[in-house]
Amino acid sequence: xxxTDADTFYRHxxxxxxxAHLNGSVSFATMKKLIARKPHLNIExxxxxxxSGQRRTLxxxxxxxxxxxxxxxxxxxxxxxxxxxVREFATDGVKYLELRSTPREEAKSGLSKTRxxxxxxxxxxxxxxxxxxxxxxxxxxxxRRNGPRVAMETVKLAEDFMLSSDGLVLGLDLSGDPAVxxxxxxxxxxxxxxxxxxxxxxxxxxxxxxxxxxxxLLNLPPDRIGHGTFLHPEVxxxxxxxxxxxxxxxxxELCLTSNVKDQTVPSYDKHHFxxxxxxxxxxxxxxxxxxxxxxxxxxxxxxxxxxxxxGPEAVWDLSHQAVQCSFAPEPLKQQLKRRWAExxxxxxxxxxxx
Length: 354
Ligand code: IMP
Ligand code: ZN
Description:
Number of domains: 1
Bound molecules: inosinic acid, zinc ion
CATH architecture: Alpha-Beta Barrel
Radius of gyration: 19 Å
CATH topology: TIM Barrel
Strand content: 5-15%
Order of helices and strands: HEHHHEHEHEHEHEHEHHEHHH
């Protein structure tokens, strides 16, 4: 449709995306190219994305990732997907992106976990060379489905890349189906990651009844929380969990459309953004999986503003705060903040009347 003034404001707003899973972020256009490369798989776009108005269960969402993984299974695929995703975030006005992905080995295409990560790093470097206007960093994901042994291996891989990637690899993400495996078993791997200097972004209380696990993981503590949907007492969490998060000022990555479409939140207006934002807690709007959930970060800011009645200044503060919550080293944070300051007048001030 036609772009309105409001659309333009959110597109031009400089943004930092801190919670984006690579294979969940594949756009319709890229998906078409992947499907054309592998016609024998008989995959249709409806099997990899939830269009507007539709909802799925969390389980169905994890099924979708399996389908996407069939389409993205070679070095060539990963290079293309990463470059496309980076370019799309840049086009959406994202100036800083922390991309995350689970290293995968694929016997069929001879892909190893090391090559998987190297290929993503190569794609990030190529995007920089092509002068795509965005700074990208990488978080290595641990899929809890694969258990503690693989988690420990993944941490070692992340440590190696942290030291050899010129600062592109900054941390570790714990994700995957929250119904599978107890997060407690991940503790040794997560502790090791933390001690070696990897930042920790952990999916936490994404589903109900994970109080004990969340309590244990919050004691690490993580550097950021993904979702945290069921932490607060109004939805079955507890004051002690909220206290831990607030006292340690652990930023929360909030993904509105993702949580509505995978039905962990009943509707946009009941999203826990409100709970944390009203407390003045650091909240970061993110997309989670812009491909699967058919959204982009501009749209997520626009939705949050309209549903929670945020004015342009409040929206600006939110995107500015995201830089502070990032894992970027201090000099890069300062550089990004200068960028935000330069752009502020043209984004916030209306053009003079003719
Ligand atoms: P990948 O790590 O790049 O392959 O991205 C897809 C993976 O991200 C999935 O297989 C999950 O492990 C993880 N993921 C994506 N969205 C979610 C979510 O909402 N909750 C938990 N894990 C997720
Ligand atoms: Zn996620």
